[in-house]
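Researcher: Here's a chain I'd like modeled. Treat it as a single chain, no partners, no ligands.
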Amino acid sequence: MSAGTQPSGGLDFEGWTCPLPLRHTPNVVMGHGGGGAMSAELVESLFVPGYGEAAATELGDAAVLPPVEGRLAFSTDSYVVKPMFFPGGSIGDLAVNGTVNDLAMVGARPLYLSTAYIVAEGTPMEQLGRVAEAVGRAALAAGVRLVTGDTKVVDHGSGDGVYINTAGVGVVPEGVELAASRMRPGDRVIVSGAIGVHGVAVMSCREGLEFGTTVESDSAALHGLVADVLATGGDVRVMRDPTRGGVSATLNELASASGTGVVLDERLLPVPAEVRDACGLLGLDPLQVANEGKLVAVVAAEDTDRVLKTMCAHPLGAEATVIGEVVADHPGVVVARTGIGGTRVMDMPIGEQLPRIC
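Model: Modeled as a single isolated chain. Structure tokens:
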């Protein structure tokens, strides 16, 4: 900006001018968030090509959706992971998979997503393009359409890289009822695979930690696995994806909402050696580390075997295992039986252990 001066030497605020940013620039500038020609160019030349076939024919400020049969499910979430790119994924596919999974956990088939970006001034266009391409690939793989969105640019110091907000719409088939209130003593707790992987992948990349092998994020869309599980006809009481706060936070929420207790067997927890090593080094509990491609299911005891068999037959549930059960004792409390025969209370995590994980 530039300003004129008054005869007295003071600033002439009425004379301020703001030159138009360059139309061709390697970095994001404030003009890209102004809603004018530069914003339109950003959508047409970066986001639409990045989204590819997953994008709707027209991307406006609102989308008119066709009618569907069944109950609508709606979810929204925001993603602020740092770094934006990490082993096994990026903020782009994380944003799509996270919202798809939130819909899947209530039994919905995800259909449509919106994407809203908050981008820091100076972010390289190349990075923003990679994020958009990751969003498009993940949406196409999940079978959802990207139908509307928005972009805002904030100045230096007000943001860091790219933040994404997604909202999703899906449809829940008749007869599907998943809720913590349906949990009963005797139900079994199943986790679909190794836990703590996503959080350790991001932290190892951020802190430069090495464990002899690369730990890759487990980010994935789980609605196909959920559909297979529901198709068994087994009595699945509730499902959750254990993201922030990990398995511990998820089970504490379910215990509190259902008025039941949960008992885990630590010997059955599927914690990879590299995750266990990293958590030991960082002073973390693997049960409290974020996951982005795993689910926790509470299933009636008599249906556990067939649900578990179906999960293990799916690529995203190949390592599924029973880790505990629902009990009438200590309602609202989760405890873990240790390998030496004792028990410990698994408290709800306080605050954020690992900032900018999702």
